[in-house]
Amino acid sequence: MFPIKDTQPSYSRPAVTLLLIAVNLLVFLYELSLDPFSRNHFIASYALVPDRLHLISLLTSMFLHGGWLHVLGNVWFLWIFGDNVEDILGHGRYLLFYLLCGVAAAAVQVLASPDSRVPVIGASGAIAGVMGGYLVKFPRARILTLIFIVFFFTTVELPAVLMLAYWFLIQLFSGVGSIGYAASSQGGIAWFAHVGGFLAGMLLVRLMAARRPYSRRKDLSW
Length: 222
Fold this sequence. Notes:
The chain is mainly α and about 220 residues long. The chain has a single domain, classed as Rhomboid-like fold (Up-down Bundle), CATH 1.20.1540. It has 9 helices and 3 strands. Strands 1-2-3 form a 3-stranded antiparallel beta sheet. α4 runs parallel beside α6, α5 runs antiparallel to α8 and α6 packs antiparallel against α7.
């Protein structure tokens, strides 16, 4: 399932979401501008490698990506779900929320595979946190979703709680299924980072008070 758009209106300009999208794209374009040796050195310097953990990499790794599909998929999910979470938290708290979710996601991935030497990169852990926050605050929103059925595809509006819960369960079961392979020399998807980010987002969005205008209108938005 792939989200196309949501029905939840946003009442403020998503300045931080747009900034995060721009930063992720600009860093990726910088990666592409480097020769292969310099690119590998750059990624090795700022990626999260559990086996030789540097605390700053918990933060820097979330702004690196491994390819066009990786970065475009991430910023698309951020665009779909980020504006509404930013709307209810406010710009400053939303930026803090995003970064904390990313750090929590990276920390969970380290705990799940502490001996792994595979670099972990990407914004998906932080964006999973945004999705978790969206689930808590907008469970009744509708998500226009592209669904693939064998060789065919169609679109359907799904409740956010169904679409996001399904996404989370896929990450959880895939993560459990990957245990034993996490420390291999081959790359893959950091499933536990997605799980950790999502749960962190669900918790943090409850701890960070909603802005007052949202408190007055949230019942109408559902």
